[in-house]
Specification:
The structure is a homodimer of 329-residue chains. Chain A is of the alpha+beta class and 329 residues long. Chain A is built from eleven helices and eleven strands. In chain A, β3, α3 and β4 form a beta-alpha-beta unit. In chain A, α7 runs antiparallel to α11. The first copy, chain A, is globular, with a radius of gyration of 20 Å. Chains A and B meet through β1, β2, α2, β3 and β4 of A and β1, β2, α2, β3 and β4 of B. β2 of chain A pairs antiparallel with β1 of chain B, so a sheet runs across the interface.
Chain lengths: 329, 329
């Protein structure tokens, strides 16, 4: 049975909010986002559409987690601690109460894991696909938000975690890529999980604030996103393909089909942090990241110039990509 | 020709933002919403779906204005001054550059009228209807946000402007309601305009902060929304149908078909302010509203009790409505 709007808000969503915080228990027109002294408020908004950012068959709890996590990933990249979020749900009629309960359970898990609370939003009926729009707010020490535009020539380029798992995970779910289909079940599952449930690197935020000159999250492909960061900073970059960290599963897929390297470097859905760090701060950054439990890997260098980033293979030759990143249209 | 995502952001949306404010010119992952000293930040989120909240045939500039204005209306109801907003656009492929330019022109007009700026957002492709999700932020003097829950027995119930024009305007656009179809062209146009382009009552915000004990905006129908306010405050309300302010056009439609009074009182899309004011503050509230150029009308009284609000006709009998408000599902 499809719940009414009132049931949806009062019975399913309100338990995600606290009556005694700025959410006002979801009983008002708006929420109150109190100022945290000594901090700036960082706000980001990402919308996910069924059939575009997730598949209709994906588990509702995972759709909820992905929708929240891609926003938390943006906060992490800016050096912010997550605080609260606003959720707009456009629900097709076919999604019943059980589906919504599972969606809410996914949010609840992530609220606990990432210490973030629902503060408000909207629920509407969709005559088309499910859409989830989230606006997330976080706190960064005053004046210390890490921007895309702060990179300088000579600085090192780092990424967190491993690159390419998300896009290869989508291939694993969709099938039809022989070198991915040929992986064993656990490897395919591992890749698929990276696509379905990204890991926002909030633990890395303090290290970014302290040491990074520029940062962003990798959502649309490493090469394209590095191009955006370089362009915003008025510089270029050179990275080594061999230095880009890959998971064991991705490494095996690429060993089976070398063309998948390009897909890993440009495919998107990584939700890892891309950042730049001055050479004299590198040791401290690596130490802080290690203490936070987040692997970071130096993959290249920021250089002068306005051209797009160059990715070199082991022989030092520049790789050419059909496109640097995923474009929604 | 459909613009690319990059063209959409850089050529069409970025001119709505300033490079030197917290939007960072839409070139970063997130925006910085600076603290305004002595103020609290009020945040609201409303999503509009084609075919549900507006019609596919509606002019793009008006769709943009309605999407922004319903959010500004929430800020106004809380006593806040609007500051900035985040826009998520889920665009069907059929909408071309000309459509998007007209949509952006509508936003630009309203940004100037209401002194609000685009701070960020997201653009995605929709395989279904157009959806517009906006998160708006405003500033209210510290500790003075006007809540739904502050009403007390004995206080007066006020509404701004006129009630019922939005829902009668939808009837005028859709046709098929004889008493509305029978109005002259200018009257139908006036009603239609109220549905298409609501008027957020931001000018009333300071008067609400200073004098109202509770407030909300009327979006889903006066009777139902008054019920929400009363319930949040732990009280009930009695209002007189004859006291509810109606436009000349609405009055004429209802004169032609008495059943339309119920539609006016319960139909929604008013985006007027509903508030409660203590008797000893009424004169000051009315004076402040008059100075702000917003008509306000006392329509009844807050009373003890937990039942839904009672609407009395001229004879003092309680009117019975099929439903108190518009429910999305």
């Amino acid at each position: 049975v499809v719940p009414s709007e009132r049931e949806l808000i009062e019975e399913l969503l309100a338990p995600l909010a606290r009556p005694d915080d700025g959410s006002l228990g979801l009983t008002d027109d708006a929420a109150l986002v109190a100022h945290r002294p000594g901090h700036d408020l960082v706000v980001t908004q990402d919308t996910l559409v069924e059939g575009v950012h997730f598949r209709a068959a994906d588990a509702p709890g995972q759709v909820a987690q992905k929708s929240l996590r891609v926003n938390l990933s943006d906060l992490a990249a800016k050096g912010a601690a997550a605080r609260c979020y606003f959720l707009s749900l456009a629900l097709p009629e076919r999604l019943d109460r059980a589906w919504i309960e599972a969606f809410v359970a996914g949010l609840k898990r992530d609220q606990e894991e990432f210490a973030v609370a629902l503060f408000g939003g909207d629920t509407v009926r969709s005559p088309g696909p499910l859409m989830v729009s989230i606006t997330a707010c976080g706190d960064v020490p005053e004046g210390e938000m890490v921007r895309r535009s702060g990179a300088h020539a000579g600085e090192r380029v780092y990424v967190s975690g491993t690159i390419g798992d998300g896009t290869l995970g989508l291939a694993a779910l969709d099938g039809g890529v022989p070198a991915v289909d040929g992986l064993d079940g656990p490897a395919r599952d591992e890749l698929a999980r990276r696509y379905l449930v990204p890991r926002p690197r909030l633990a890395l935020a303090p290290a970014l604030c302290a040491h990074a000159s520029a940062a962003m999250d990798v959502s649309d492909g490493l090469v394209g996103d590095l191009g955006l960061l370089a362009r915003a900073s008025g510089v270029s970059a050179e990275i080594e393909a061999a230095a880009v960290p890959l998971s064991a599963a991705a490494r095996r897929a690429i060993a089976g089909d070398g063309a998948l390297l390009a897909r890993a470097l440009t495919g998107g859905d990584d939700y890892e942090i891309l950042c730049t760090v001055a050479p004299q701060s590198s040791a401290a950054f690596e130490a802080a990241a290690g203490k936070a439990g987040v692997a970071v890997t130096a993959i290249g260098t920021i250089v002068e110039g306005g051209a797009g980033p160059v990715v070199r293979d082991a022989a030092g030759d520049a790789l050419v990509f059909e496109r640097g990143s995923y474009a929604h249209f």
